[in-house]
Amino acid sequence: MSPRHRSIAIFMLLSALALAGLAAANETLNPLLQYQRSAIDQWQVWRLFSAHLVHLNLVHGLLNLAGLWLIIFWVGAERRRASWLLAGALIALSISLALYLWQLNISYYVGLSGVLHGLLVFGLAPLCAQNLPAGWAGIIAISIKLCYEQIIPGGNSATEVLIAGPVVSIAHIYGAVSGALLAFVWALGSKLKARTNDF
């Protein structure tokens, strides 16, 4: 097994164990970790990050876990592990702040789906920079999905039945935009670093 495949296997195992632990303590942890506007007003700022780690139920968690694994398999090699972790944290924070500042009607939020949209865009960006069809196809597909969620009423009804709760599709847009902005910042940083090394 190559080092990359070993890393992926370890990540999959750890993420599955983490999900199982969070799901087992769902009723206890969710009230402490979910995005909750009133609690954030009282400076419980950890919720800006932790809300994206807890889920409505096991099915919700499994769907998000499957999405995460697909991203890792598809574009995981396009970024370093440290870049993925930092991007995930920044996207999570961006989504939470956007919900807090602009979505006053949303009092609570849980789940990783918004972050997943951001990570996918972040991971596809290097493929687009190389003009690879897979990168542009992915960006077009995620753009169509985001438009569909906003335009078609009840477009997420089947998913909402599965997860036993509402799909906050605006978080997907905030995540995707955050991922695109981070990809731009990363690319700009790489160019500046290359120019500095030339001198």
Give a brief rundown of this model.
This protein is mostly helical. It has helices at about 5-25, 25-35, 35-40, 45-50, 60-75, 80-100, 115-130, 135-150, 155-165, 170-199; strands at about 35, 110. It has one domain (about 5-199): Rhomboid-like (Rhomboid-like fold, Up-down Bundle).
Describe what this molecule looks like in 3D.
By secondary structure, the chain is an all-alpha fold. The protein has a single domain (3-198), classed as Rhomboid-like fold (Up-down Bundle). The chain contains ten helices and two strands, in the order ααβααααβαααα. The chain has helices at residues 3-24, 26-33, 37-41, 47-50, 58-75, 81-102, 113-129, 133-151, 157-163, 169-198, and strands at 35-36, 108-109. Strands 1-2 form a two-stranded antiparallel sheet. The protein is globular and about 50 Å long. It starts with a helix and ends with a helix. The mean pLDDT is 88.
Please summarize the sheet with the most strands. Answer: 2 strands, antiparallel
CATH architecture: Up-down Bundle
Give the overall average pLDDT: 88
Q: What structural category arises from helix and sheet content?
A: mainly alpha
Cross-sheet strand order for the largest sheet: 1-2
User: What is the rounded Rg?
Assistant: 17 Å
Bin the strand percentage.
under 5%
